[in-house]
Amino acid sequence: MAKVTIESIKNVVINLKQDARDRGLEFVEITSRDVHDIVGGYENGNTRYPSCCKAMYAVMTDKDEVLYAPKSEQSSTVKVRYYL
């Protein structure tokens, strides 16, 4: 299994956005749980929610919006609307 990095997680988000764009959508809403499930590889109960959230925030543009985030801004429930 390849090492999971913030860059590789960003690519997951970018690919989800591109897939939605290819389907003709105006926007896509992605949760950190969606990204986390795609990244996978959580042996020993280790999760990557903080990394998933950081990657999601990093690929946001000025027009994108956070629909939900807890105070910590890092959990499985972070939800971002990306405008395409």
Helix and strand topology:
Elements lengths: L5 H17 L4 E5 H8 L9 H10 L6 E4 L10 E5 L1
Antiparallel strand pairs: 1-3, 2-3
Helix pairs in contact: 1-3, 2-3
Task: Tell me what the structure shows.
By secondary structure, the protein is of the alpha+beta class. It is built from three helices and three strands, in the order H-E-H-H-E-E. A three-stranded antiparallel beta sheet has the order 1-3-2. Helix 1 packs across helix 3 and helix 2 packs across helix 3. The longest helix is centred in the N-terminal third of the chain and has 17 residues. It is globular, with a radius of gyration of 12 Å. The relative contact order is 0.25. The model has no long low-confidence stretch (mean pLDDT 90).
Measured distance between first and last alpha carbons: 31 Å
> What structural class do helix, strand and pairing data support?
alpha+beta
The main pleated sheet reads as: 3 strands, antiparallel
Percent helix range: 40-55%
Q: What does the oligomeric state look like here?
A: single chain
Order of helices and strands: HEHHEE
Mean pLDDT: 90
Backbone CA Rg: 12 Å
Number of strands: 3
- How many DSSP helices? 3
Instruction: Using the alpha-carbon principal axes, give the shape.
Output: globular
What portion of residues belong to β-strands?
15-25%
The stretches of 5 or more residues where confidence is low (pLDDT under 50) are none
Major sheet: arrangement of strands: 1-3-2
